[in-house]
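re the bet — no i am not wrong, look at it urself. input seq straight from the record:
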Amino acid sequence: MPGGRLTQREREHIASGLAAKLSYGEIARRLNRPTSTITREIARNGGPADYRPQQAHQATIQRARRGTRTAPRADTPPEGLMEEDLLERAVRAGMPRITARVHRDLLLSEDGRRTAAELTRRLNVSPASVSVAVNFLLRQGFVRRERDPRRRRDIYVIDDDAWYHAIMTSERQTLQTARATMAVAETYGLDSSVGQRLAKTAAYLEHVSLDIMEVAERWRALLR
């Protein structure tokens, strides 16, 4: 049951899900458990890289016998759990996991700046994976690229305007979709049922996107 203790079989499913690179939310959905339960279970039992279902189950039994409340791991402070939750929310929103890890690392860095080599080393992933991730973030407006002329390397930067650029990039893409939809509507004829349906969709997308862009501009100016 969702409110009861995890069984050993459920822990084996968690390990299988981690091996398959599933998000915590997806693992939770398959087990009919809250995502917070899965997050805590993994965090207190070695983290995603070192989670072992049998050891986790035995540790839970021992804690239950002692009758003590489970304490977070010494190397997993509360802020670590919040950072993990931040990652999982990005994944659930549709961002690829490695891209979400790159984004989180940039977001939480002191100056919001990392080179590709630093990201590769810190996240323990391949240079190709980092390249794919930063290109996605660049296209979506979450980061920008700067060039270090002295060392001939790219630096990826996330700053106070990152979310503004991401929103504007997304809404420009939606506007393009709206205008393409209207073009198809006109091809079918605005007096036809298909044309009317597409025209209403295009009008809705266009007006909402323009409103969002206006609000983004206004709040950017106010927050400055």
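see?? The radius of gyration is 23 Å. told u. also The mean pLDDT is 86. so pay up
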